[in-house]
């Protein structure tokens, strides 16, 4: 792929600022004020423009892209969300799309092309240089959610017998250097990875020193089929800025840069959050109405079934409600407090499992801590809520009602914290994604168990 023009990044605009800028773009696009639109685009960097294009219609994206200087278009396309960029590329003529992608890093180009329909993809690849097209075809063969789909084939390599001076000269003579380069990878004659040397070490070493004498032999590497979530965890755990990718024979295939890992961390966090909410794995704007409907109805069905189960379970306590109607007033707060603390505990555990914090040696301590927190918080808020319940009852019942509400709240929150902590641990033990099933299961079970416990206390302590 061709070299990439250097660019300076600035922090993304704050949400309110982005909203205002998008509104300005919409206004200028609707008014057809090309002169002011050009001036507005010149005052913004590539990342700011890309964040706005993500939120425009396809036709408006094309109009804005055409107004940009030719040398800025690949940079803006590269900074866009891959889904939005793929839609935009699919609307361009194959020749124009090929020219844009030819000026991008191979790994970014592949992330975009992997979302383009096969027919249009082949048309675009047919307009590229044969070597570039073959390189992209090789990368497209890997699953986009693996190390192979993330890696860039552009990196510096050197033989261990070379000198530091040879390595520096090789870097300086490179016609198309990688956009981000932090290491020089040491390979043998069969291209097997045997060491790594940071560019800093090259600079501070004597030119006559051999690469083998300064290289690091203790390597952290992954294979092409390693899941992207595992890649992100390795980079985070070892504080790396780049990670080599090898095949089963340790032959060097490519390098994953830290900027791609940051994108993965954001994607995985978004995916986990959406899964826990039962809203699928993708943001709503990236799916059709039918797709969103198909994803959500299953989890809402689980919630409806759980609610129905709770209602049927509580039907046996109708005489208690008839005797003390005030019990119904505190059902929402008992269920709500339990549900909240249950989701807090489950979120902590799910995130801990995702980042590798929850290990076998910590499970017992984690469960004890969360259940203790639930019981302590339950007693605290149970006392506060019980104080309000005194004003609801009459005769001798207020104090008994207050006791039921206090213990019911404490019990519900204790049960919820135990369920919220243990559920994702059990699901993970059976290789079920905790982020998918934890939310609906915890919410439903806490409502049923918490309210049954609450009414059982009422029958025991109030004699109803």
How would you describe what is shown here?
The longest helix has 33 residues, at 397-429. This protein has 23 helices and 6 strands. α22 (397-429) runs antiparallel to α23. The protein has helices spanning 15-31, 34-42, 46-53, 58-67, 73-79, 82-91, 94-102, 106-113, 118-126, 130-140, 147-150, 164-173, 199-204, 211-214, 228-238, 258-276, 289-314, 318-323, 326-329, 331-354, 363-389, 397-429, 434-461, and strands at residues 156-158, 183-187, 193-198, 222-223, 242-246, 252-257. The chain is 65% helix and 6% strand. The chain is mostly helical. It is elongated and about 90 Å long. The strands form 2 sheets. Strands 1-2-3 form a 3-stranded mixed beta sheet. Strands 4-5-6 form a 3-stranded mixed beta sheet. β5 and β6 (252-257) form a beta hairpin.
Please give a handful of descriptors for the protein shown:
single chain; 464 residues; mainly alpha; 3-stranded mixed sheet; 23 helices; 6% strand; elongated
Give the SSE map:
Layout: H1 15-31, H2 34-42, H3 46-53, H4 58-67, H5 73-79, H6 82-91, H7 94-102, H8 106-113, H9 118-126, H10 130-140, H11 147-150, E1 156-158, H12 164-173, E2 183-187, E3 193-198, H13 199-204, H14 211-214, E4 222-223, H15 228-238, E5 242-246, E6 252-257, H16 258-276, H17 289-314, H18 318-323, H19 326-329, H20 331-354, H21 363-389, H22 397-429, H23 434-461
Parallel strand pairs: 1-2, 4-5
Antiparallel strand pairs: 2-3, 5-6
Helix pairs in contact: 1-3, 3-5, 6-8, 7-9, 8-10, 15-16, 16-23, 17-23, 20-22, 20-23, 21-22, 22-23
């Amino acid at each position: 792929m061709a070299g990439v023009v250097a660019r300076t990044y600035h922090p993304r605009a704050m949400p309110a600022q982005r909203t205002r800028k998008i509104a300005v773009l919409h206004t200028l696009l609707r008014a057809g004020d090309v002169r002011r639109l050009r001036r507005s685009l010149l005052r913004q960097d590539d990342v700011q423009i890309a964040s706005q294009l993500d939120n425009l219609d396809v036709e408006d994206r094309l109009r804005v892209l055409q107004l940009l200087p030719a040398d800025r278009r690949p940079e803006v396309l590269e900074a866009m969300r891959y889904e939005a960029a793929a839609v935009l590329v699919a609307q361009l003529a194959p020749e124009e799309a090929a020219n844009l992608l030819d000026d991008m890093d191979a790994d970014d180009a592949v992330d975009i092309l992997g979302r383009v329909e096969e027919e249009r993809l082949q048309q675009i690849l047919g307009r590229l240089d044969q070597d570039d097209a073959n390189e992209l075809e090789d990368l497209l063969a890997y699953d986009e959610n693996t190390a192979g789909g993330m890696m860039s084939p552009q990196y510096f390599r050197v033989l261990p017998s070379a000198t530091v001076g040879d390595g520096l000269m090789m870097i300086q003579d490179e016609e198309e250097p990688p956009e981000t380069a932090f290491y020089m990878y040491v390979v043998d004659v069969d291209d097997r990875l045997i060491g790594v040397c940071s560019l800093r070490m090259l600079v501070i070493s004597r030119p006559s020193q051999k690469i083998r004498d300064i290289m690091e032999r203790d390597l952290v590497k992954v294979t092409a089929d390693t899941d992207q979530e595992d890649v992100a965890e390795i980079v985070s755990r070892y504080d790396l800025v780049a990670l080599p990718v090898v095949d089963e024979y340790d032959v060097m295939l490519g390098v994953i840069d830290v900027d791609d890992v940051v994108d993965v961390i954001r994607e995985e966090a978004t995916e986990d959050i959406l899964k826990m909410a039962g809203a699928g794995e993708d943001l709503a704007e990236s799916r059709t109405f039918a797709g969103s409907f198909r994803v959500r109805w299953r989890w809402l069905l689980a919630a409806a079934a759980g609610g129905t189960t709770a209602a049927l379970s509580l039907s046996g306590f109708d005489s208690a409600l008839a005797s003390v109607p005030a019990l119904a007033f505190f059902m929402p707060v008992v269920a709500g407090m339990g549900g909240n603390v249950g989701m807090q505990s489950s979120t902590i555990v799910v995130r801990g499992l995702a980042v590798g914090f929850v290990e076998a040696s910590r499970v017992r301590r984690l469960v004890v801590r969360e259940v203790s927190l639930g019981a302590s918080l339950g007693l605290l808020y149970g006392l506060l809520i019980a104080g309000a319940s005194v004003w609801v009852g009459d005769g001798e019942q207020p104090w008994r009602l207050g006791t039921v509400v206090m213990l019911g709240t404490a019990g519900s929150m204790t049960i919820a914290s135990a369920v919220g902590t243990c559920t994702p641990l059990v699901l993970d033990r059976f290789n079920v994604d905790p982020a998918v099933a934890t939310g609906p299961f915890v919410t439903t079970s806490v409502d049923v168990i918490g309210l049954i416990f609450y009414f059982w206390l009422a029958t025991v302590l109030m004699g109803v």
